[in-house]
Design brief:
Oligomer: homodimer
Order of helices and strands of chain A: EEEHEEEEHEHEHEHEHEHEHEHE
Keywords (chains A, B): Oxidoreductase
Helix content of chain A: 10-25%
CATH class of the largest domain in chain A: Alpha Beta
Pfam family, one (chains A, B): ADH_zinc_N
Number of strands of chain A: 15
CATH topology of the largest domain in chain A: Quinone Oxidoreductase, Chain A, domain 1
Number of domains of chain A: 2
Largest interface: A-B, 39 and 40 residues
Protein name (chains A, B): Putative oxidoreductase YncB
GO molecular function (chains A, B): oxidoreductase activity, acting on the CH-CH group of donors, NAD or NADP as acceptor
Distance between the termini of chain A: 24 Å
Number of helices of chain A: 9
Largest sheet of chain A: 7 strands, mixed
Domain Enoyl reductase (ER) (chains A, B): 19-334
CATH superfamily of the largest domain in chain A: Medium-chain alcohol dehydrogenases, catalytic domain
């Protein structure tokens, strides 16, 4: 038993528009000896995710807004370094939601042991093997009800969820997978590394102008991480009966003014489209089914991934902002003590 | 056997914005003797419906656009006056889609005999007992998956589909039904005649300002006939997991400019909302189930209805325009030879 100092990042003010450093503070918490039932975990990686921006606002949602003055919660993976319980011995790899801190000390029930996967760094449990991959899987299956032979369009395709969604779509039988990204390098990555049939750079020309040529047979499933112009372009390209999984709208997360929605939403009526928003809140029951698929695909070498790693918990805010500016390829994570 | 002159209204030009008389022509067609397998029907009532405006445009949709130079198709009800087939004898009441004409002469297979309902004028087979009622039923059940205890908001609630949807929602177990309409008279009708718990006049103040006070527990199901500001207001008021049936967007049907969509569509993500557009095309299989419910409710005196009747097939265009301006209460129909 011993004391431990934990460096933690807290939200202290609700951002207006883009978050700024003054909206956060970095603080030190000193943990005492473990209480019965507690474990102490040294985090290896902490996740930064687009949904976190939404929770900084004080609005009605499935997930409550972040409390001011408390440490930012979110996904993290680490190893047990001290324990009081038998089923989480020292050295166990655990996932948890205690977020932006280098050391977490909490009740054992708030940590979940995960099986290490051969060849996979621990950070993948925050990414393609974890919430990120599950988000792609849930969006395509439970929300968009993907069918073999579907043409699938993914916006923000080079992001963490996007790279997962495109590959999962293919593995679930999509006949054509098309993505969008914000640089020539990312576009090349989509087709060369992630198996996309075609990709567009949304900075080259309006998506509405570029998309039709890439989906000559129309779009059956749209997995939307962006919203805005991407949703508008997709609504024009959807086939009758098409399904749209609304996963993110990063285009509007940091705007202080209300941004108008798609000008062609009435296509949903004439074409019988379904738009369904989701967060993982209601779909945890699909995690075992996803894990079975994904560990098999991963073991077979059928899953490519990239990560963008930022070092040091004190840089978590920068990592989040960089991710929202699109500076990452694949999952953005913060490495601790590496 | 005999010849017959049929007065018919045809679309001759695709409207830009609001249709004008010059977009149509009234013409006389002379039918010869019946060919084997044909029947001749004298229409009693012809339907004018919001979806017709959409089909005047040349756009991708479940339903093909109206052909120029051909008679406007659409729902109509009449009686067989001459026949060549045994199962449709003279006097049979039939429904068909031959539309804006006073006399129809076509293959017997394009007409469907309907059972007359005691106490119901034939026009109701175009309204609450027919497509209009079915639209409300499909939107609430197959699309919005209404549950007992739901709070339901209906836009355009004094229109044909709206009056049906509000009553059906109540009969299917909604605990609170709220509607919008465009005049004080219609608002009064909603609460006094159609069983709405509360109603708002969208001309009094922005819907976004008026709605929250009428739905203190939030909205579970939104049946949208209007789009625009109504959809925006509803998205703000929806409860997590809420379902939106997109049935019509009459607010935008006649605009020549693209109108921006709701500025709060990202609520669909954070609240896990589903927006599903529909037309009746894919839901004909629910007609028998609907008919069983509705004839029972009607016989029990639990269904109120209004109709706005315009006389003469030559006034069909005026009837359509009046309906789109909101001059009708309940179903707008054109009476023939009354």
């Amino acid at each position: 038993m011993s004391h431990a100092v934990s460096i933690q990042v807290q939200l202290v003010r609700r951002p207006s528009g883009w978050p700024v450093p003054e909206d956060f503070r970095t603080t030190e918490v000193t943990y005492g000896d473990l209480a019965p039932g507690q474990v102490r975990v040294a985090n290896a990686f902490v996740s930064v995710d687009p949904y976190m921006r939404g929770r900084m606002n004080d609005v009605k949602s499935y997930a409550p807004p972040y409390a001011l003055g408390e440490t930012m919660t979110g996904g993290a993976v680490g190893r047990v370094v001290e324990t009081t319980v038998e089923d989480l011995p020292v050295g166990t790899v655990v996932l948890h939601q205690h977020g932006w801190r280098d050391v977490a000390q909490e009740d054992a029930g708030t940590f979940r042991a995960v099986a290490e996967v051969a060849g996979a760094p621990l950070s993948l449990h925050l990414g393609i093997l974890g919430m990120t991959g599950l988000t792609g899987y849930v969006g395509l299956t439970a929300i968009a009800r993907i069918q073999p032979g579907d043409t699938v369009f993914v916006s923000g395709a080079a992001g963490a969820v996007g790279t997962a969604a495109g590959q999962i779509a293919r593995l679930l039988g999509a006949s054509r997978v098309v993505g969008s990204a914000g640089s020539a390098e990312k576009v090349a990555l989509l087709t060369k590394r992630y198996g996309y049939d075609a990709a567009l750079n949304y900075r080259d020309a309006p998506v509405r102008e570029q998309l039709p040529a890439l989906v000559p047979g129309g779009v059956d499933v749209f997995f939307d991480n962006v919203g805005g112009d991407h949703l508008e372009a997709a609504l024009d390209a959807m086939n009758p009966g098409g399904r749209i999984a609304l996963c993110g709208a990063i285009a509007g997360y940091n705007s202080t003014e209300r941004t108008p929605g798609p000008d062609n939403l009435s296509n949903a009526i004439t074409r019988g489209l379904t738009l369904q928003g989701f967060t993982l809140g209601g779909y945890g029951h699909l995690a075992p089914e996803f894990a079975e698929h994904m560990t098999g695909w991963f073991a077979d070498g059928r899953i490519a991934y990239d990560e963008t790693v930022v070092d040091g918990i004190e840089n978590a805010v920068d990592a989040l902002l960089g991710m929202m500016r699109g500076e990452n390829t694949g999952k953005m994570v913060v490495a601790i003590g590496s």
